[in-house]
Write a structure and sequence with these properties.
With 324 residues, the protein is of the alpha+beta class. The protein is 30% helix and 19% strand. It starts with 13 loop residues before the first helix and ends with a strand.
Length: 324
């Protein structure tokens, strides 16, 4: 089943139907939409590589070079492989060294020209702070300090005001969905994780994934993580442990199910590990940045016999997912 085909209502195989079901107590995990706040159009032509002489002179001090290298490595491993990255020449070269294809790089000119064609930018130390805050208001990671500081930011074509409005609406949706997810009897959370859910600190893609998995499996969330240095952002990573007897087999099936998804609900990393003797855990991690607008709070309560049954309106491809 593909979570991203949001408006397609058709009959699916039993496994797909099971994935659409969330949990008897999850009041509304929302309308999942394909477009988020950080969408950007990929360029149609492949851009040329940045040569060494173009990169020369952008950074000179040892701290600046170190911050640039760390930022490039983080972007290569953590940022979505579909994202277009705005960069100054030296950073573009460093990103290519880390394996980022030149077709994904948008060299930024004076006055941040080119920024509107990007999803993420890596700011040079000399960047105009006013322009950065206007077109790339979401700080998702930072490296170094002072004059050597490099920031990685998500862009918003509509500007800072549009981002702030989308952020507040998304926070409300995440808080609502997280609070309802805590009530799902198939999932156990630590007190700390439950607090993070209530505060709206968990990525919408992760909320949807946990809810979908809970339709088939019982498990414990042992921790949330974000892997974003220098700034507190939404938790994009979760480690879960089995809640029942046949743990390893269930986690393997859960991992296979998660790996069947399409963007934006396909995680970057899905791994099964054995952190301690006799234990097994499933780690799910989504790429940065965390998109806004994937959840729209909806409450649809239908009656089945004498008990109320929660329904998710247009949350998944089936259109209506009745909970039992």
């Amino acid at each position: 089943m593909r979570l991203s085909r949001l408006r397609t209502v058709r009959r699916r195989r039993p496994q797909a139907i099971a994935l659409a079901v969330v949990a008897a107590t999850l009041v509304a995990l929302a309308a999942l939409q394909l477009t988020g706040a950080f969408s950007g159009a990929a360029p149609s032509a492949v851009r040329p590589s940045v040569s060494a002489h173009q990169a020369a002179g952008d950074v000179s001090s040892r701290p600046a070079v170190a911050a640039q290298s760390e930022a490039a490595a983080w972007i290569a491993s953590q940022v979505s492989s579909a994202a277009i990255i705005g960069c100054y020449p030296a950073m573009c070269a460093s990103l290519q060294t880390q394996g980022v294809d030149a077709s994904r790089l948008m060299p930024l000119g004076p006055g941040m020209t080119g920024v509107l064609g990007t999803d993420v930018i890596a700011t040079p130390p000399s960047a105009d702070e006013r322009l950065v805050n206007q077109y790339a208001p979401a700080l998702i990671a930072s490296f170094g300090s002072g004059p050597a500081r490099v920031e990685v930011r998500a862009t918003e074509p509509g500007g800072a005001a549009a981002y702030e409005s989308a952020l507040q609406a998304d926070l409300t949706a995440r808080r609502y969905a997280g609070s309802e997810l805590i009530r799902n009897w198939r999932i156990q959370f630590t007190a700390r994780d439950a607090g993070q859910l209530r505060a709206g600190e968990v990525d919408s893609r992760l909320l949807a994934t946990l809810a979908a998995l809970a339709s088939q499996y019982s498990f414990r969330v042992t921790s949330f993580g974000d892997a974003s240095p220098g700034v507190q952002v939404l938790f994009r990573e979760a480690t879960i442990a089995p809640g029942g007897g046949n743990g390893p087999a269930e986690l393997a099936r859960a991992a296979a199910l998660v790996n069947q998804q399409d963007a934006p609900f396909l995680p970057t990393h899905v791994t099964i590990s054995h952190p301690a003797a006799g234990q097994v855990a499933l780690n799910i991690e989504f790429a940065a940045p965390s998109p806004l607008g994937l959840l729209t709070p909806t409450l649809e309560v239908h009656q089945q016999s004498t008990a109320s049954v929660t329904v998710i309106a247009n949350a998944l491809p089936l259109g209506w997912a009745r909970l039992s």
